[in-house]
Design a protein that fits this description.
16 strands; six-stranded parallel β-sheet; oxidoreductase; seven-stranded mixed β-sheet; 31% helix; 338 residues; Rossmann fold
C-alpha cells in the first residue's frame, strides 16, 4: 500500500510502498478515505519530541482519518465490514491507504457529512473536548475565554463549549472573526487592535491555544478559583501521573510548568496542560453533535496524496481557518474486497 513517509527528520514526505498492516484479534483494519493535517504533524516531521516519542524511521505521518472498515478482529464488537468510521491514530500513521486501529481509536462517522469532512474532526475535537471537560471542568453558564478561536482546535472548542452551555469570548483577527460567524461566539476580541486583558476580567475559565505571553496574560483575566487549560505546553504533573508516566518524567514536567502553576495558585485556581488521548466514546458524542448541527465543519483546502507536502506546508504557514485535508482515496474508488 502507499503511505506518506519521511526517511529522515526535516525532509519532505514521499509516497512510499509499505506493507499493508496485519490486525490482531483486538484491532480493525480501516481503508482510509481522507486524513487531515494538524500542526503536530509538521512538528513530528521536523523532529520535535523525537527523543520522547521514540518513533522509528521511516515514519508515516498523520493522526486524523476517516474510512471504511475492511477487517474486524475476532474480539472486536460494535463494528462490521463496510462501516464508515472516523478516528485518531494514537501516535502517528494515518497518511496511508490502510491503518490498523483499536476500537477505542474510532467511532461511527457522522451520518450528515461526507467522510472527507469527517476526517477533519477527530484530533481537534478530542483536544477541545478533553481540555474543556477534563481540564476546565466547564459548567453551564460559565464564561470561557478561548485564545485563538479561528484555528482548528479553537473553533472546535467554541462549538463544544456552546454544547456544554457555556458563554464564549474568543480572540481572533478581523479575517478570523468573519470565519467564526458560523460558530456564534458571544464576543470576539480582535487581538490585532485590542489587548484582551484590558477589556476582560473575572472569566470562569480560559482555554489557550496560543501559548507564550498570551498564556501568561490569561491568568490576569481569571476569576478567583478559575481554571486555565492549554494545548501549548508540556503536560502538567497531574496529567503525567494520570497517564502513567514515570516519576522522573513527572518531576521534569512539574518543573517545566511550575511558572504557570504558580500563576494559577495566585488566583486560587488550577492550571492544566495535557496530551490528547484517543477516546471512542467521546468521538461518538462528537458525531452526535455534528448530526444535531451543533458542530460546524469547515475545510479550507483539499489536497491529493501526491501533494501531501503542500498540505503540510499550508498548515505550517499558519493562520489556516478550519482544517486542511489530504484525500487518500475517494470513497467512490474504494475496493470491494479486502
Amino acid at each position: 500500500m502507499r503511505a506518506l513517509q519521511i526517511n529522515h527528520y526535516g525532509e519532505d514526505v514521499q509516497i512510499q510502498e509499505v506493507e499493508k498492516p496485519t490486525i490482531t484479534a483486538e484491532q480493525l483494519c480501516i481503508e482510509v478515505v481522507a486524513a487531515s493535517v494538524n500542526p503536530v504533524d509538521y512538528k513530528i516531521q521536523q523532529g520535535d519530541g523525537k527523543w520522547v516519542l521514540g518513533n522509528k524511521l521511516p515514519l508515516t505521518l498523520g493522526h486524523d482519518f476517516s474510512g471504511i472498515v475492511k477487517e474486524v478482529g475476532v474480539n472486536v464488537q460494535g463494528y462490521q465490514i463496510g462501516d464508515k468510521v472516523f478516528g485518531r491514530a494514537p501516535h502517528t500513521g494515518s497518511f496511508c491507504e490502510y491503518i490498523a486501529v483499536h476500537p477505542n481509536d474510532i467511532a461511527h462517522a457522522p451520518r450528515t457529512i461526507s467522510l472527507i469532512e469527517a476526517a477533519s474532526v477527530p484530533l481537534a475535537a478530542l483536544t477541545a473536548w478533553q481540555g474543556l471537560e477534563e481540564g476546565l471542568q466547564l459548567q453551564p453558564k460559565q464564561t470561557l475565554l478561548i485564545t485563538g478561536g479561528s484555528g482548528g482546535v479553537g473553533s472546535a472548542a467554541i462549538a463544544l463549549a456552546h454544547a456544554m452551555g457555556a458563554q464564549v469570548v474568543t480572540t481572533a483577527s478581523a479575517q478570523g472573526a468573519a470565519f467564526l460567524a458560523a460558530y456564534h461566539p458571544e464576543k470576539i476580541i480582535d487581538y490585532q487592535t485590542t489587548d484582551f486583558k484590558e477589556v476582560l476580567s473575572s472569566v470562569d475559565a480560559v482555554f489557550d491555544t496560543r501559548g507564550g505571553q498570551t498564556l501568561v496574560d490569561s491568568f490576569s483575566v481569571l476569576k478567583k478559583g478559575g481554571r486555565v487549560a492549554t494545548i501549548v505546553s508540556l503536560p502538567t504533573a497531574d496529567f503525567a501521573q494520570k497517564i502513567g508516566l514515570g516519576k522522573g518524567a513527572q518531576l521534569f514536567v512539574k518543573v517545566a510548568t511550575s511558572r504557570f502553576t504558580r500563576l494559577a495558585r495566585k488566583k486560587e485556581g488550577h492550571f492544566y496542560a495535557f496530551f490528547t488521548q484517543s477516546n471512542g466514546n467521546q468521538l461518538q458524542k462528537i458525531a452526535q453533535l455534528i448530526d444535531q448541527n451543533q458542530y460546524p465543519i469547515h475545510i479550507e483546502e483539499q489536497f491529493s496524496m501526491d501533494n501531501g507536502q503542500a498540505a503540510i506546508n499550508l498548515v505550517k504557514k499558519g493562520h489556516v481557518k478550519g482544517k486542511v485535508v489530504i484525500v487518500i482515496r475517494p470513497e467512490e474508488e474504494m475496493t470491494t474486497t479486502h
